[in-house]
Amino acid sequence: MRSLDFEPREHRIAAHPEADGEVLVVDLDGTLTRTDLFYETAWSALSKRLGNITGIARALARGRAHAKHRLAELGPIDAAKLPYNDAVIDHIRRWRATGGRTALVSASDQHVVDAVAAHLGLFDEAHGSDGRRNLKGAEKAAFLVDRFGEGAFTYIGDSAADLEVWRVASGAVTVDIGSRRRAQVDSMGIGTEHLTTHDGPFRPALRAMRPHQWLKNLLIFLPMLAAHQFDLVTATQAFIAFVAFSVTASSVYLLNDLLDLDADRAHPRKRRRPLASGALPLATGTALVPMLLAVGLGLSLLLGPLFLAAMLGYYAVTTAYSFKLKRLLVIDICTLAGLYTMRIIAGGAATGIPLSMWLLAFSTFFFFSLAAMKRQAELVSGAAAGEEKAHGRGYQVGDLPLVANMAVSSGIVAVLVFALYLNSDTVTRLYANPTPLWGICLVLLYWISRMVMITHRGWMHDDPVVFAATDRISLICGGLMVALVLAGMIL
Question: Does the pTM of the predicted model rise above 0.85?
Answer without folding.
Answer: no
